Write a sequence for this structure.
């Protein structure tokens, strides 16, 4: 998938990523990148980047990255577990996340997301997400309640 393909696929609106100002910026065979503003939408009461906003950026990038490794017409990726270590506080500017696949299997994927301050390059947060790969119901099939 190209960056344009991913942006189109991920463009279902509105989403949490939209609310937080998350933008996709790059995709290669090896990683997916995006960025998020550090402003009133993403601050905690002390005026620092909220840890939950960092986790939202990490999950957004990991989830989209995982989707690039499957046939999205037949399967979906859903989060099983995410963790994050918050390393450095940020008050303003932008943070950039890079999601890299650590494991891509048939039923699970594991992605590492490194979030850095866009201007200084300082490590802000390191996160890891485990994704389950699930089959979508066949078109026209009936599900039981």
């Amino acid at each position: 998938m190209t960056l344009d393909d991913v942006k189109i696929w991920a463009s279902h609106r509105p989403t949490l990523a939209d609310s937080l100002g998350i933008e996709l910026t790059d995709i290669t065979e090896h990683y997916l990148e995006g960025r998020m503003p550090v402003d009133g939408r993403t601050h905690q009461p002390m005026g620092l980047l909220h840890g939950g906003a960092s986790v939202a950026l990490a999950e957004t990038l990991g989830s989209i990255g995982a989707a690039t490794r499957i046939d999205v017409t037949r399967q979906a990726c859903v989060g099983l577990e995410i963790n994050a270590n918050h390393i450095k506080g940020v008050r303003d500017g932008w943070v950039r996340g890079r999601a890299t696949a650590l494991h891509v299997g048939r039923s699970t994927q594991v992605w590492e997301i490194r979030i850095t301050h866009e201007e200084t390059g300082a490590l802000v947060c390191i996160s890891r997400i485990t994704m389950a790969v699930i089959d979508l119901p066949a078109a026209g099939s009936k599900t039981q309640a």
